[in-house]
Each structure stands twice: as structure tokens, then as C-alpha cells.
Amino acid sequence: MLLFARLSLGRSIGFVPAQRVIVTGGAYRIVRHPIYTGIFLSFIAWTLRDYSPRVLAISVIGCGLFVLKSFIEERFLREDPEYRDYLTRVRWRWFPGI
């Protein structure tokens, strides 16, 4: 999932939200934050493989930070009319149907 999402993003990547080209193809046709989806799945797999209270805490905190980051990014990007249109076409933030 991470690889598919990253390849779908192409050169439009950064650590902070910025006005770049809005990517709407590939994995971004399905969910708005597919890289985060891959990260969430990795945290879940790690927690299931090496369960301990410490691993669970790290996974919950890590996922929580990416959830927060996605809300901050979307608040910034909603200023762009093209992104607002994208929001109407792709309803799911991280997982289809959830």
C-alpha cells in the first residue's frame, strides 16, 4: 500500500502542506491519504506481531499523530477550490467505507 501510494504521488511530496499539484489518480482515487493508510496498516501489523503494552502505546500515539497531521493538511488544502472539488469526489480519508 505504501509503495502504491508513494508511486501515485509522483514528485508532489513534502513534509509540510504546500500548494502543489493535487494528485487525484492511482491510490488517491480511492482514499485521500493512502500513504497514511499504509502507515496505519504497518503499525497494526507491528502491534499484532510484537504485541506488548509499549508497542501498542507507540502504535496508538503514532497513528494519532498521523490522524492529526491529516486534519491539519486538509484544513490548509481546503483553501484551494480544486482540492475542495477533490473532497467531494473522494469521500474516504484513510480507509474505503470507514
TrEMBL record:
Record membrane topology: Multi-pass membrane protein
InterPro entries assigned: Metal_cation-efflux_comp (IPR052527), Phopholipid_MeTrfase (IPR007318)
Gene3D superfamilies, per database record: 1.20.120.1630
Protein known as: Isoprenylcysteine carboxyl methyltransferase
Coiled coil (residue ranges): none
Predominant place of localization: membrane
Location relative to the cell: Endomembrane system
Keyword Translocase: no
Keywords, alphabetical: Membrane, Transmembrane, Transmembrane helix
Source species, domain of life: Bacteria
Gene Ontology CC: endomembrane system
Keyword Aminoacyl-tRNA synthetase: no
Source taxonomy: Bacteria, Pseudomonadati, Thermodesulfobacteriota, Syntrophobacteria, Syntrophobacterales
